[in-house]
Design a protein that fits this description.
Elements (H helix, E strand, L loop, with lengths): L8 H8 L1 H6 L1 H5 L4 H20 L5 E6 L5 E5 L16 H7 L23 H6 L1 E10 L2 E8 L2 E2 L4 E5 L4 E8 L11 H14 L4 E6 L4 E6 L4 H8 L10 E7 L2 E9 L6 E6 L2 E2 L5 H20 L10 H5 L2 E9 L4 E2 L5 E2 L3 H20 L1 H32 L22 E6 L1 H10 L5 E6 L11 H4 L3 H10 L16 E5 L4 H17 L1 H5 L3 E4 L4 E5 L2 E5 L2 H11 L6 E3 L8 H9 L6 E3 L5 H12 L3 H11 L8
Parallel strand pairs: 1-8, 12-14, 17-18, 17-19, 19-20
Antiparallel strand pairs: 1-2, 2-7, 3-4, 3-7, 4-5, 4-6, 8-9, 10-11, 11-14, 12-13, 15-16, 20-24, 21-22, 21-23
Bound molecules: 3-[3-(1H-pyrrolo[2,3-b]pyridin-5-yl)phenyl]propanoic acid (0RA).
């Protein structure tokens, strides 16, 4: 019987050591899929970024090698190699074999530190089948190799060095990861972000297989970051920027309004994208609402009314980047800032800096206030329209649209909503479904492109309001996850170009109105089969063209035994159930947002007004055939 009953994750981490990392990798790096794999690179790069932030490193090179390994090479001071006083082995070996010893044992030189899990290079070492460490220090090149966390050689001097630095090459372990292929684009997005957030830092990303190199460097930092996010949008003014340094960190903010209706506030703490928000974001929002309201009242644009938070954030792109020596991360994915003092601090900095900016730049202030005024007018008009709709709906069952075939089960964890392209496929789906847990909402053809419509217009579209009512959570500031009526929302469209378009329109709607549903993994795409292959009595359903080649060869089927489904409507309800809807046998794709900034840019490009940007994007990405969001 121990005295301490509750162990926190941190206690366990310390207790277990590196075997624990291999036993429960997800606890340390989030997952053993694509995200976790890329996390390995970020963890190593973060250490080099720390060295850069401390002022000792100017360039970081990341190389995807032909043999599947990754090299991260920096020109920092090099991890110390002198014997550790207690352990009597090179200090660098401690950094690579002991948890929490990753680079941060020299705390004085580290004002702040990146790294989401902060677990250091030792985790990367534990999860690599091989790792080669090379340190240039004291005029010598020191080298040591490891496998699955354990040293396989002693630290050796292998030559003379000019300059200093740390180079780590690691081979992710296939025993741990479901995939070990790195994605250039994913890394590119993250490195671009890191260099925007650390003006002056250079990162070079090289792909040895494709023989391509990409350099990331930003001298303008956050100002360039907002410009980049707004690139294919029509902007209303030059970016507004301010920075405040404190003794335990810094707060930096860039703001630029555009003519769209979207709100895009991205928060970062020590370069980590705080997707769950936190005190820095709430402080920013409070101040923004207050300053714009005060301005509009002073200029008599507003009389008795006030702008709501949503009003002042329509068309806003903002980055709030906070660097703190001791951040407290909270929330499901540890991406919410908890430090309570930051809310008031950001609030007061934004209030004074933005008020001053408005006084000095009255034309910009006027544009922003006018934009908010327009949003407020549209909001009031939409409310009137909604009240009308609500009164109409009062007569129908619980306000749910008549087109919905609801399920009988009310527990949202178990239920599914199918959004089905077309009335006829909707009819088959209603017959095919499991009535207890599957609800069907047929959609009439193409839904409205919400990217191009202002919110009040979007909310006057029947298809859109139907979806909002049926899903139950509400939208925008009123969004309430607890009210969700279905655990899975599944888009079921034909496997053709129109079907893809409808899916994109639906995703645009979810991304702009209820992004939380995507973030929390509620949105799915059904995968209807492309073909049915028949041999005698046997039917095989085939979902891709590749699979078709394999199956026809295996079954020895020739031309003519191959049916190509043109649409969902061509399947009878039994076929639809077997192939696409039966939870036991169907395949569905979960939609996730890898990077909200990239997703925003892609939606603007695909669905917005800038035709040239769209053409360029489609041409650049044509070879990928499918959109990865
Ligand atoms: C601890 C102390 C010192 C440097 C580092 C760690 C260091 C770690 C990493 C990890 C990747 N690149 C790195 N570069 C440096 C400085 C010791 C000194 O010279 O005073």
């Amino acid at each position: 019987m121990g005295e301490k009953k509750d162990y926190t994750a941190d206690d366990i981490k310390v207790l277990e050591g590196l075997e624990g990392v291999r036993k429960r990798p997800a606890m340390y790096i989030g997952s053993t899929g694509k995200e976790g794999l890329h996390h390995l690179v970020y963890e190593v790069v973060d250490n080099s970024v720390d060295e850069a932030l401390a002022g000792f490193c100017t360039k970081i090179k990341v190389i995807l090698n032909k043999d599947g390994s990754v090299t991260v090479d920096d020109d920092g001071r090099g991890i110390p190699v002198d014997p550790h006083p207690t352990y009597k082995v090179p200090a660098a070996q401690i950094a690579l074999t002991k948890l929490h010893a990753g680079g941060k044992f020299d705390k004085k030189s580290y004002a702040i530190s990146g790294g989401l899990h902060g677990v250091g290079v030792s985790c990367v070492n534990a999860l690599s089948k091989k790792l080669i460490l090379e340190i240039k220090r004291d005029g010598k090149i020191h080298q040591q190799e490891y496998s699955r966390g354990d040293p396989t050689t002693k630290m050796k001097i292998i030559g003379n060095a000019t300059g200093t630095g740390t180079k780590i090459t690691f081979y992710p372990d296939e025993q741990i990861f479901s995939t070990t292929t790195f994605d250039f684009k994913t890394l590119e997005t993250r490195f671009r972000e890191i260099t925007f957030l650390n003006a002056g830092l250079k990162i070079e990303l090289r792909d040895e297989i494709k023989d391509t190199t990409q350099e990331f460097f930003s001298s303008g930092g956050l100002v360039e970051f907002v410009r980049w996010i707004n690139k294919s949008k029509e902007v209303l003014h030059k970016p507004i920027y301010f920075k405040r340094e404190m003794n335990n960190g810094a707060i930096e903010i860039a703001i630029q309004y555009n003519s769209t209706y979207q709100e895009n506030i991205f928060g970062f703490v020590n370069t980590i994208n705080t997707v769950e928000g936190g005190t820095h974001i709430s402080g920013f929002k409070t101040a923004l609402t207050r300053v714009i309201n005060d301005y509009a009242k002073k200029k008599e644009l507003l009389k008795n009314d006030s702008f709501s938070g949503d009003d002042v954030r329509e068309g806003l792109t903002a980055i709030v980047s906070v660097k703190l020596s001791e951040p407290q991360f909270e929330g499901q994915t540890k991406t919410k800032l908890g430090n309570s003092e930051i809310k008031g601090l950001v609030d007061s900095i934004v209030t004074s800096a933005l008020t001053e900016f408005f006084e000095e730049n009255p034309q910009v202030a006027k544009k922003i206030a006018d934009k908010s005024l327009e949003a407020a007018k549209a909001r009031l008009a939409a409310k009137k329209a909604k009240d009308l709709v609500r009164r109409k709906n009062a007569f129908s069952l619980g306000g749910l649209p008549g087109k919905l075939a609801d399920c009988s089960d009310k527990k949202s964890e178990e239920t599914e909503l199918y959004l089905v392209e077309g009335e006829s496929a909707g009819g088959s789906a209603k017959m095919a479904r499991n009535k207890e847990m599957q609800a069907i909402l047929p959609l009439r053809g193409k839904i409205l492109n919400v990217e191009k419509a202002n919110p009040s217009k979007a909310l006057s579209s029947e298809e859109i309001t139907n979806m909002i009512t049926v899903i139950g959570t509400g939208i925008g500031e009123q969004f309430d996850q607890a009210k969700i009526r279905y655990g899975k929302i599944i888009m079921m469209t034909d496997a053709d170009v129109d079907g893809e378009h409808i899916k994109t329109l639906l995703l645009t709607f979810f991304f702009r109105f209820m992004p939380q549903l995507i973030e929390h993994g509620h949105i799915y795409a059904a995968m209807p089969p492309l073909y049915r292959v028949r041999k005698g009595q046997k039917d095989v359903y085939v979902y891709t063209d590749e699979e078709l080649k394999k199956v026809t060869a295996e079954l020895g089927v020739t031309e003519g035994g191959v049916t190509r489904f043109k649409g969902l409507g061509e399947m009878n309800s039994n076929q639809l159930w077997d192939t696409t809807m039966n939870p036991k046998t169907r395949k569905i794709k979960k939609i996730y947002i890898e990077d909200a900034i990239e997703a925003d840019r892609i939606f603007t490009m695909l669905m917005g007004d800038d035709v040239q940007a769209r053409k360029d994007f489609i041409q650049e990405n044509a070879h990928e055939a499918k959109l990865d969001i």
